[in-house]
């Protein structure tokens, strides 16, 4: 018995000696089920099973911050997660993970190969369908682009007239700005596209490409965005049905408060006058078509709708009161081009007032050869539009450009508003004398000129000694028994004008002789509509004429003793410092 116990003790001691001997590993085992791992640029999680008889630990190479092992140490059999980050470059990378038995020092190696990113661009949707119409401010769509290179959007030439990328990135959230600070790892960015109303009966198509901005980048692939816009209902020109469909589209585009009721005939639509055979000037083909249209109260952000071009029988268009018009900068004819012009040669009267118009450009895109009356009152012009001239409007005889002020400021030398925020024709360097010298194709001047309530400044032009300005002749004075001889040689300005209004501007200096002795001065109601000026101009000059007479009767009858004065003549009228008219 004692011998058996001794033998067992010796065996146990021998076993312990073998276990503690690091050079003796015949009974030690550490192994892995994978010795190589290949992973794509996006990275991910790979499972590795470790078998060990005791404690072990995993270690990474010094160049491997892109790999995380969980757990990184253990005992016995454990399945680990090898968490591999996404790549940062277009080049592949390699690293070695070492699994070491802590008791024996035995090691197993695992090689990880990760490919780099290719230059590529993906769009979350490659096909987009858009409607023919949407309200202003809602004509856009977004796509999400996943890419690892800076790109530019290429819209085909054939589609640039109706679709474009929104370039005002600063007005959009941060998600619309591509950030590539972390190398070529793909990033998501939103791209916004704006589109215009489709007025044609054809479907619109556009294939939009995304191209690297750098010539050094060659994309392995790049999606193409296919956009399709539905066609509009065709409008048949020069027909009653075409007029009605045009009016429906106009009211919709301008977001009019009152839309037309399609359940009743166009004859009953509010603000619409149709031609009938009893009307003067009616042509047989115009009967039942639109003669006059009135549009009140809308929320338009753009110029005249494209469909206005179909109102070819109309002789008057009246548009008034656009929401927040003082804040808007509308180009009245922006929808029309030389290839697709607005041709309304039957139109005689056009009013677009309190609408927010600041641009009025006419070249080959607009033709209104027979327009006689143009009212652009209460808009936002900085200057009298150059396009308003006898060449573009050979028959125009009445022009209204009053109240162009965005903000009413009495003292322009002490204001927080910029020139752009004032309007009121403030950029006119002096009084627009070309309007005073207007000569139509028949040789006549304007019979109505209204420029009241603006910021016109300086002195009225005297035209004295101007060879290009005619003067009253002796023959004319002798032929009319009411004209005084003192009128001979005076510049003949606005000789047939019936309405002339320039009150409440910033005009100053001496009123010229052609005005003070004008044969129609009494009819112009000067103490209300000519002489009253207000405030100061930006240079500090106080507005007001230095030779304003105290009484028109006393002053005017001296020159025109044989003339019966207008019934509306005013007497003893003066203007206070603040521009208030008192009688």
Helix count, per DSSP?
Answer: 7
Please tell me the overall pLDDT: 89
What is the helix fraction of residues, given as a range? under 10%
Query: Major β-sheet, in short?
Result: 8 strands, mixed
The total count of strands amounts to 35
In total, how many domains does the architecture comprise?
Answer: 4
Structural class: mainly beta
Task: Report, as a whole number of angstroms, the end-to-end distance.
Answer: 145 Å
* Spans of at least 5 consecutive residues with low confidence: 1-26, 571-583
Gross geometry: elongated
Cα radius of gyration in angstroms? 42 Å
What strand order characterises the main sheet? Answer: 19-20-21-24-27-28-29-31
**Beta-strand level of the residues, as a percent range?**
25-35%
Question: In a nutshell, what does this entry contain?
Answer:
The chain has 583 residues and is mainly beta. It has 4 domains: 28-114, Immunoglobulins (Immunoglobulin-like); 120-229, Immunoglobulins (Immunoglobulin-like); 235-352 and 359-375, Alpha-Beta Horseshoe (Leucine-rich repeat, LRR (right-handed beta-alpha superhelix)); 381-393 and 400-583, no CATH class.
Keywords:
about 575 residues; Immunoglobulin-like; Leucine-rich repeat, LRR (right-handed beta-alpha superhelix); eight-stranded mixed sheet; five-stranded mixed sheet; 7 helices; 35 strands; elongated
């Amino acid at each position: 018995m004692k011998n058996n116990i001794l033998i067992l003790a010796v065996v146990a001691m021998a076993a312990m000696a073998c276990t503690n001997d690091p050079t003796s590993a015949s009974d030690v085992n550490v192994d892995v089920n994978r010795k190589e791992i290949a992973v794509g640029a996006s990275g991910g999680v790979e499972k590795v099973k470790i078998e060990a008889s005791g404690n072990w630990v995993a270690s990474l190479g010094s160049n491997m911050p892109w790999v995380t092992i969980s757990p990184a140490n253990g005992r016995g059999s454990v399945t680990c997660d090898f968490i591999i980050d996404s790549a940062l470059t277009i080049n592949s990378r390699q690293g070695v993970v070492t699994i070491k038995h802590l008791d024996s020092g035995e090691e197993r190696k695992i090689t990880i190969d990760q490919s780099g990113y290719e230059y590529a661009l993906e769009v979350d949707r490659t096909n987009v369908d858009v409607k023919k119409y949407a309200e202003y401010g809602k004509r856009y769509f977004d796509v999400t682009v996943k890419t690892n290179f800076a790109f530019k959007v290429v819209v085909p030439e054939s589609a640039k007239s109706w679709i474009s990328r929104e370039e005002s990135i600063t007005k959009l959230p941060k998600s619309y700005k591509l950030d590539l600070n972390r190398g070529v790892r793909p990033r998501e960015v939103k791209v916004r596209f704006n589109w215009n109303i489709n007025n044609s009966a054809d479907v619109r198509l556009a294939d939009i490409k995304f191209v690297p901005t750098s010539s050094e980048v060659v994309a392995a692939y790049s999606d193409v965005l296919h956009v399709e816009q539905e066609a509009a209902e065709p409008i048949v020109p020069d027909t009653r049905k075409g007029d009605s469909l045009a009016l429906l589209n106009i009211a919709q585009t301008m977001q009019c408060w009152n839309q037309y009721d399609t359940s009743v005939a166009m004859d009953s639509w509010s603000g619409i006058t149709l031609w009938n055979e009893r009307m003067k000037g009616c042509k047989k083909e115009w009967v039942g078509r639109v003669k006059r249209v009135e549009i009140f109260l809308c929320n338009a952000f753009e110029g005249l709708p494209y469909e206005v071009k179909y109102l070819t029988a109309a002789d008057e268009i009246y548009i008034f009161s656009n929401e927040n018009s003082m804040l808007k900068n509308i180009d009245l004819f922006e929808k029309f081009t030389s290839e697709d012009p607005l041709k309304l040669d039957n139109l005689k009267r056009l009013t677009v007032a309190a609408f927010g118009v600041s641009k009025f450009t006419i070249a080959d895109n607009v033709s209104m050869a027979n327009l006689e009356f143009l009212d652009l009152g209460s808009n936002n012009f900085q200057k009298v539009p150059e396009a308003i001239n006898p060449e573009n409007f050979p028959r125009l005889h009445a022009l209204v450009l009053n109240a162009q002020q965005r903000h009413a400021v009495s003292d322009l030398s002490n204001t927080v508003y910029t020139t752009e925020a004032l309007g009121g024709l403030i950029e006119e360097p002096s009084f627009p004398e070309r309007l005073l010298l207007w000569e139509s194709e028949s040789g006549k001047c304007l019979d109505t000129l209204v420029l009241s309530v603006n910021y016109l400044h300086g002195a009225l032009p005297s035209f004295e000694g101007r060879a290009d300005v005619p003067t009253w002749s002796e023959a004319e004075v002798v032929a009319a028994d009411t004209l005084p001889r003192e009128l001979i040689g005076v510049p003949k300005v606005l000789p047939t004008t019936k309405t002339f209004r320039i009150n409440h501007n910033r005009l100053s200096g001496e009123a010229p002789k052609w005005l003070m002795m004008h044969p129609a001065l009494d009819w112009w109601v000067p103490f209300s509509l000519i002489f009253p000026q207000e405030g100061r101009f930006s240079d500090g000059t106080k507005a007001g004429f230095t030779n304003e007479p105290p009484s028109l009767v006393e002053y005017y009858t001296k020159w025109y003793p044989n003339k019966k004065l207008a019934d509306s003549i005013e007497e003893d009228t003066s203007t206070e410092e603040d521009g208030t008219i008192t009688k």
